[in-house]
Design brief:
By secondary structure, this protein is mainly alpha-helical. The chain has helices at residues 14-38, 42-56, 63-70, 74-86, 108-130, 134-155, 160-165; strands spanning 90-95, 98-106. It is globular. It starts with 13 loop residues before the first helix and ends with a helix.
Length: 166
């Protein structure tokens, strides 16, 4: 079979691409279940997951970081955080290190739901990663970073001058 770039199926590791597709689908299904259970849209869930990752890694989560992570304005971030706080998912408290900043934390009830829904998945993934050698983990990280770069490049508009001409 000839692909759009003129290469053939034999030129690609179709089993790896199929596996990536399965991972993408499983992730999308997990996110859909989380959105449904927590009654959130995709952006609000991404914000909530960022706060959860920060807590897991003992780092502070702040609104200013969400601007970059979500790719939205500071006004949109405020709206998102207002929704999450009103729904009882996050708390905004003064940061003990800098009273001017507001530290974002999950509410106990939301933390419990996330743990119930994804705690087992995270434990299983940690077990899989622990079984890998240091070299295997390094190789995997490099490959995943390359895949991420390819995906990010695919989302870019390679020829903005075409839009200016139309």
């Amino acid at each position: 079979m000839t692909l759009t770039d003129g290469s053939t199926d034999g030129d690609y590791s179709t089993d790896v691409i199929a596996a990536l597709t399965r991972v993408e689908l499983a992730d999308a299904q997990l996110r859909a279940r989380l959105r449904q259970r927590l009654q959130l849209n995709s952006t609000d869930l991404a914000a909530l997951q960022y706060v959860e990752r920060c807590e897991t890694n003992n780092r502070g989560a702040y609104a200013k970081d969400l601007v970059h992570i979500l790719g939205v304005t500071s006004a949109a971030t405020t709206t998102i955080l207002d929704r999450l706080a009103h729904a009882g998912h996050v708390l905004r408290t003064p940061d003990p290190a800098s009273r001017r900043l507001r530290l974002l934390t999950l509410t106990d009830s939301t933390r419990t739901v996330l743990t119930e829904m994804i705690g087992g998945t995270q434990t299983r993934l940690r077990g899989l990663l622990a079984a890998m050698s240091h070299r295997e983990r390094q190789r995997t990280v490099r490959m995943m970073d390359e895949i991420r770069c390819a995906l990010e490049a695919g989302a870019c508009d390679p020829s903005p001058e075409l839009h200016a001409a139309s």
